Amino acid sequence: MSAKKKVLVVGLGIAGMAAAVRLHGIGWEPLIVERAPARRAGGYFIGLFAEGREAAERLGVLDSITRENPVGSRTWEVGSDGGRMRSVGFLDQPGEPRGVLRGDIEAALWDRVRDVIAVRFATSPEAINSLPDYARVALRDLATGEVREESFDLVIGADGLRSSVREQAFGPNEKYMRPFNAIVCAFALNEQVPNLADRDGIVLAEPGRSLWVFPFGDRPPTALLTYRTKNENAEFDRPPIETLRERYAGVDGDGAIGHVLEELENAPDFLFDSVHQVKMDTWHDNRVVLVGDSAWCLTLYSGMGATAGLLGADALGAALEKHPESINAALTEWEEGLRPFIKKHQFAAQIKSQVFVPSNVALARVRRSVMRKQGKKRRIELEDSTMAPAA
Ligand SMILES: Cc1cc2nc3c(=O)[nH]c(=O)nc-3n(C[C@H](O)[C@H](O)[C@H](O)COP(=O)(O)OP(=O)(O)OC[C@H]3O[C@@H](n4cnc5c(N)ncnc54)[C@H](O)[C@@H]3O)c2cc1C
């Protein structure tokens, strides 16, 4: 009997765990390395679309993602003066996304990983030599500083937007990261914003800055602040809360902005980052392949990053299962099959970014008018469904 193929998976996020679970399922021996000293939890709102749910089902984790979505939730478009109109929320869009926390998907995958797949925390690749038949990787233990060289049949870089694997195997990150000239801050709220029903959401979208509040059925909502900027680097000169207070100065949204910034000040965990897409001509080279944000980061505006990470990891496993004798053939077929999906959503993200945060006054007006129409339609649909006779 031939020995099991060894795969190094870099990154314990959605894409990395999904890839490890899938490859373990077809008889490979994965080792996951994660830079952080422990597994993260919580996170921000994520809409999981059909393609992601189907991949999650194939990976055996869909039923463990149990987050409740709000029933009869309304989304309000709030003006900076506090005025409100009915609008449509993230979950009202076509494709029927399901609202979860990033941590919900990661926790479900972790249940499949722990006990059966080797995980080394506080470990990061320092150098990767990708050869036609194997990859030689220097792995650094970040706690002790010790570096150990190991060989693998395949290295999967699932280490996110600022990927070390990409840098070591494909070249500097600046070559691949395309800035959107925007910043995002996302975190979980402890309490609903003032003057809003528990299961309702709001959107405050001004030219260049916006706030979204995403409700859940079984926990308080999460908040997303996103704004446009000409100089991303300057946004990191001060603590995020100071930067955000300045960027959202003069806007109140019926108390929503004040509430969210106050909660942010005491939030144990939040994301504050610049927004980039990753564009690469190829995602694989010899025995290294990238999957998830490290390969194609779609951005939060696409609403498809987690879906694409699950789908990409599952498809990678399927291709390797189909071509047990040729890893190269598997990677080539996998990439050809997945590229049209990624290309479509990278393009869509450019347009959807205007829904999340319009760049200027004219686009903000267009956006508001579209949202007003959609909101009316949604209200009528909801009223119709509540008036419909029971079957
Ligand atoms: C605010 C926001 C909202 C979003 N909304 C949606 C949505 O509605 N729908 C959707 O589908 N997607 C959404 N996304 C995108 C989605 O969250 C990401 O695409 C997805 O989580 C990326 O997963 P990943 O595993 O590829 O990367 P990551 O989640 O970035 O995980 C990478 C992992 O690698 C580790 N790592 C990094 N460097 C190293 C290293 N050198 N060595 C070892 N480990 C390393 C990191 O610590 C991390 O654990 C959203 C994103 C944001 C920011």
From TrEMBL:
This is 2-polyprenyl-6-methoxyphenol hydroxylase. InterPro entries: FAD-bd, FAD/NAD-bd_sf, FAD_aromatic-hydroxylase. GO terms for molecular function: FAD binding. Pfam families: FAD_binding_3. Residues 6-320 form the FAD-binding domain. It comes from the Bacteria. PANTHER family: OXIDOREDUCTASE-RELATED (PTHR46865), POSSIBLE OXIDOREDUCTASE (PTHR46865:SF8).
